[in-house]
Design goal:
The chain is mostly helical. It is built from 7 helices and no strands.
Protein backbone atom coordinates (compact mmCIF):
# COMPACT_ATOMS: atom_id res chain seq x y z
CA UNK A 1 0.00 0.00 0.00
CA UNK A 2 1.47 3.33 -0.98
CA UNK A 3 1.79 6.25 1.39
CA UNK A 4 -0.65 8.43 -0.62
CA UNK A 5 -3.41 5.83 -0.45
CA UNK A 6 -2.79 5.19 3.24
CA UNK A 7 -3.15 8.89 4.11
CA UNK A 8 -6.34 9.38 2.09
CA UNK A 9 -8.26 6.52 3.70
CA UNK A 10 -9.59 6.95 7.19
CA UNK A 11 -9.89 4.01 9.52
CA UNK A 12 -12.58 3.56 12.11
CA UNK A 13 -11.53 3.85 15.74
CA UNK A 14 -13.05 2.64 18.99
CA UNK A 15 -15.31 5.06 20.83
CA UNK A 16 -13.52 4.36 24.08
CA UNK A 17 -11.42 1.96 26.10
CA UNK A 18 -14.40 0.00 27.45
CA UNK A 19 -15.89 -0.44 23.97
CA UNK A 20 -12.72 -2.18 22.83
CA UNK A 21 -12.48 -4.35 25.97
CA UNK A 22 -16.11 -5.47 25.68
CA UNK A 23 -15.78 -6.18 21.94
CA UNK A 24 -12.61 -8.21 22.50
CA UNK A 25 -14.21 -10.17 25.34
CA UNK A 26 -17.36 -10.83 23.31
CA UNK A 27 -15.38 -12.14 20.37
CA UNK A 28 -13.23 -14.35 22.57
CA UNK A 29 -15.97 -15.82 24.75
CA UNK A 30 -18.96 -17.54 23.18
CA UNK A 31 -22.35 -17.95 24.79
CA UNK A 32 -21.58 -21.64 25.35
CA UNK A 33 -18.70 -20.67 27.60
CA UNK A 34 -20.93 -18.34 29.57
CA UNK A 35 -24.01 -20.54 29.99
CA UNK A 36 -23.49 -24.23 29.34
CA UNK A 37 -19.92 -24.81 30.46
CA UNK A 38 -20.23 -23.60 34.11
CA UNK A 39 -23.53 -25.46 34.42
CA UNK A 40 -22.01 -28.76 33.26
CA UNK A 41 -18.89 -28.27 35.37
CA UNK A 42 -20.99 -27.73 38.49
CA UNK A 43 -23.37 -30.60 37.66
CA UNK A 44 -20.64 -33.21 37.16
CA UNK A 45 -18.14 -31.98 39.76
CA UNK A 46 -15.65 -30.39 37.39
CA UNK A 47 -14.31 -27.77 39.79
CA UNK A 48 -10.68 -28.69 39.17
CA UNK A 49 -11.21 -28.57 35.41
CA UNK A 50 -12.89 -25.19 35.78
CA UNK A 51 -9.93 -23.88 37.77
CA UNK A 52 -7.49 -25.17 35.13
CA UNK A 53 -9.62 -23.67 32.37
CA UNK A 54 -9.62 -20.24 34.02
CA UNK A 55 -5.84 -20.32 34.55
CA UNK A 56 -5.27 -21.20 30.89
CA UNK A 57 -7.69 -18.51 29.66
CA UNK A 58 -6.03 -15.88 31.83
CA UNK A 59 -2.49 -16.83 30.79
CA UNK A 60 -2.72 -17.79 27.12
CA UNK A 61 -5.88 -15.91 26.19
CA UNK A 62 -4.82 -12.58 27.64
CA UNK A 63 -1.27 -12.83 26.30
CA UNK A 64 -2.50 -13.61 22.77
CA UNK A 65 -5.05 -10.79 22.97
CA UNK A 66 -2.30 -8.36 23.97
CA UNK A 67 -0.01 -9.66 21.21
CA UNK A 68 -2.60 -9.16 18.47
CA UNK A 69 -3.53 -5.74 19.84
CA UNK A 70 0.11 -4.66 19.85
CA UNK A 71 0.59 -5.87 16.27
CA UNK A 72 -2.50 -3.99 15.15
CA UNK A 73 -1.46 -0.79 16.88
CA UNK A 74 2.08 -0.91 15.47
CA UNK A 75 1.05 -1.54 11.86
CA UNK A 76 -2.42 0.07 11.78
CA UNK A 77 -3.54 -2.93 9.71
CA UNK A 78 -5.70 -6.01 10.15
CA UNK A 79 -4.17 -9.19 11.56
CA UNK A 80 -3.46 -10.67 8.13
CA UNK A 81 -2.26 -7.30 6.86
CA UNK A 82 0.14 -7.00 9.79
CA UNK A 83 1.71 -10.39 9.07
CA UNK A 84 2.01 -9.57 5.37
CA UNK A 85 3.57 -6.21 6.28
CA UNK A 86 6.09 -8.00 8.48
CA UNK A 87 7.11 -10.46 5.79
CA UNK A 88 7.33 -7.71 3.16
CA UNK A 89 9.68 -5.71 5.40
CA UNK A 90 11.79 -8.79 6.25
CA UNK A 91 10.91 -8.46 9.94
CA UNK A 92 11.78 -11.81 11.51
CA UNK A 93 9.66 -11.17 14.63
CA UNK A 94 6.49 -10.69 12.61
CA UNK A 95 7.33 -13.70 10.49
CA UNK A 96 7.87 -15.88 13.58
CA UNK A 97 4.68 -14.67 15.28
CA UNK A 98 2.59 -15.12 12.14
CA UNK A 99 3.93 -18.59 11.48
CA UNK A 100 3.59 -19.75 15.09
CA UNK A 101 0.03 -18.44 15.43
CA UNK A 102 -0.97 -20.24 12.26
CA UNK A 103 0.71 -23.42 13.46
CA UNK A 104 -0.98 -23.15 16.86
CA UNK A 105 -4.41 -22.86 15.26
CA UNK A 106 -3.75 -25.87 13.06
CA UNK A 107 -2.56 -27.94 16.04
CA UNK A 108 -5.63 -27.07 18.13
CA UNK A 109 -8.07 -27.90 15.33
CA UNK A 110 -6.34 -31.14 14.31
CA UNK A 111 -6.08 -32.29 17.93
CA UNK A 112 -9.76 -31.59 18.53
CA UNK A 113 -10.79 -33.50 15.41
CA UNK A 114 -8.57 -36.43 16.41
CA UNK A 115 -10.15 -36.60 19.87
CA UNK A 116 -13.65 -36.52 18.39
CA UNK A 117 -12.78 -39.30 15.93
CA UNK A 118 -11.39 -41.43 18.79
CA UNK A 119 -14.62 -40.94 20.76
CA UNK A 120 -16.67 -42.00 17.72
CA UNK A 121 -14.50 -45.06 17.14
CA UNK A 122 -14.64 -45.98 20.82
CA UNK A 123 -18.44 -45.79 20.88
CA UNK A 124 -18.71 -47.74 17.63
CA UNK A 125 -16.50 -50.54 18.97
CA UNK A 126 -18.45 -50.62 22.24
CA UNK A 127 -21.75 -50.79 20.32
CA UNK A 128 -20.39 -53.55 18.10
CA UNK A 129 -19.19 -55.54 21.12
CA UNK A 130 -22.56 -55.14 22.85
CA UNK A 131 -24.49 -56.18 19.74
CA UNK A 132 -22.35 -59.32 19.33
CA UNK A 133 -22.95 -60.35 22.94
CA UNK A 134 -26.72 -59.92 22.47
CA UNK A 135 -26.66 -61.76 19.11
CA UNK A 136 -28.09 -58.76 17.30
CA UNK A 137 -27.51 -58.45 13.57
CA UNK A 138 -25.00 -55.84 12.44
CA UNK A 139 -26.40 -52.89 10.53
Amino acid sequence: MTQEVKESTTRATWSGKWAFILAAAASAVGLGNLWRFPYLAAKYGGGMFLLTYLVLVLTFGVSLLLLETALGRKTRLSVIGAYIWGTDNNDSLFDAVGTSSGDAGWIVVSTSITVIMIWILQRRLKWQKDSESLHLPNR
